[in-house]
């Protein structure tokens, strides 16, 4: 509702309640405007609609892909979206990613943990709620400055300025954007998945990403030892997430089905199959083992199944896990993806071991033969050595073209000596264009970096500590941080304001009038920053 209309409506309510005469309708309308979303479900419904519109826009034009960065704290997510609005003027097609890896490493009461679903499951929904609390506060902070300017214009009798500010207030773009939230492998059985999905949706999640690993054997997608489950088990969890969305009224909630099959060589279970060629039989067809002719070849404890019309003795490890055939990963990925899309998932996530457009496209094109509008969420992972990967890709391409590569040592291409070479510069250009190329050629709708802010915090802290505890002393902070904040227009230089001091002062005045004890007077040192 437009601000002026809201003021009039509240004024009408106040007239009907004479004991509320101390309330200024402008103050109440202002507080409403600064709190656009009342619940997490309001957020989930709003952002689901945005995401569906973005998916349709991508289907029509692959250059309209979306992006996000993983954020492990509400403040980091808030500052990211404030920065995006400052530099690009809009948050359109920019999301947040909630990384299970960072929840495990940074948000568990057990302390830092590996990405193996050992952290408290409620940490995930709590982080979603925290992220949206900070994004809503960013709305309140930005609008508070506009309302203060409006009050000044009105007091000065500047009608034109006041009208322009009201227009900005009415057309304010929220910092609240979709979050793609990682539920790992569901933290248990399908019922456990459903219960956690509900918590995540109630906190504001419109999009949940779930992977086809075994819950109690879950590994980071870039570690060894990954164990997948038969399709029926995974589809039950997709159904659980869909029912959670529908129960809570988020009818267009988005499910991303992730497959780790490319790097997973193990399964915990042999799939149930009722007839040749069914889904269970297809899953089992990838099992490694040996065909046998009669029962004399079965040893104590062996498992034998019928596959391809013959008796197969699957290879089983001491752990009880069964092995897949070497080299079957891509075929399993394609089957996983087609099956997920045909059974309720909206998008795919293929976890790969390197950033290679050709590799991704090779799998996606096979999937699109069956599901033409298949779309990916792709992990631009910090686990890849991006510099080395792209330099080696350029090296290999040149070698195949017959170009002389004798000046380069392929195994040592990470060396700084190659930074300004033709190969190094072309590799950087390939890296720069990776997201555009993958979205155009390999069906990637959404590009994310899972844990970039884990690394940025470590890097910036190292730089500050090195200088501050060394010869630079206080200059390390002043030159490296505060001076840069001032010159780059980073709002956190006025950290009291960013933390809500001015909002609180205005509220005190709303509540107590001239008796309000405010913090933002002439003696507030924040005034040194203009």
Explain what the structure shows.
With 530 residues, this protein is α/β, with parallel strands linked by helices. It has helices at 3-15, 25-33, 40-60, 74-88, 100-106, 122-156, 159-170, 190-203, 231-247, 279-284, 329-341, 357-368, 386-401, 422-441, 452-468, 474-488, 495-498, 501-512; strands at residues 66-70, 94-98, 179-182, 207-211, 227-228, 254-259, 266-267, 289-292, 305-307, 310-314, 322-323, 347-350, 376-379, 444-449. Strands 12-6-4-3-2-1-14-13 form an 8-stranded parallel sheet. Strands 5-7-11 form a 3-stranded mixed sheet, with no helix packed on it. Helix 15 (452-468) crosses helix 16 (474-488).
